[in-house]
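Dear support,

I submitted the protein below through the web form. The confirmation email said the job was done, but the results page showed an empty box. After a refresh the structure appeared. I'm attaching both so you can tell me whether what I see now is the final result or a partial one.
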Amino acid sequence: RTKIATMLIHVDLLDPRPEAVAAACPLAASVNIPADQLPMRRYELPRRGEAVKIAALEGADAAMEPLRDADLVPMIEHDLVFGGPAQRARLWEPSSFLEETLPHLTTGTALDLGCGAGRDSVFLAAHGWTVQAVDRLPDALEIGRGLAARYLERGEIDNLVWLNLDLDARPVADIHPQPDLAIMFRFLHHPTLAALPSLLAPGGSVLLEVFTLENAARHGKPRPSRCAGVRELTQLIAPLKVLQADENWRRDGRHTARIWARR
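What the results page shows now:
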């Protein structure tokens, strides 16, 4: 079992003041994102539909509209505590599947396939993992680098590599020699899944979360070829041993299949 660090804690309080003002008088258990920066730092905010407390300080009124535009529920918080020990905090959340499973894994090397904006990669790096984050979209990787720069310490940043790569053009086996963990969340690439059993280090784990046809029927996306259920995923990653599997509606209103399997 890995020891989960407490250096990057989750909070629900936004400090909307300018950076210099917030640094001069820190607000405990909060994340400082100046109100005028909220539109371009959407990936540092909670999931859609979540409530966000805004400290009743300079910038609070200006923060309301950007948060509503991000489909969040803002509310002004007057009960504030200043000072205290310095803590790294975040409003954003990684995959709930990753967060639930991570305490049961031994820290090592990880491969994040289809990493998107990089929250899961940053979360892993903050907990001592050495991570390669792979995505074909340069803009997504740039967001990930910004996230890492704001929330990771220097040694953690050095342990996180961003790879601009199209998995259709280069086999996953060329990317990383035997990772201890491979994750693929809300993304599906059949050739990569088929390669994972031989790619993982002995004893290594894979965590998958894929949209189902049930989700596509309700929301109109993704296309059926990008959907799969537990049964299909289990066949694709055979002979890995499935430790946990389920299909369900998630907190954000999406229906997904999840699998934790081990070599």
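Response: this is the final, complete result; the empty box was a page-load delay. The two ends are 17 Å apart (CA to CA).
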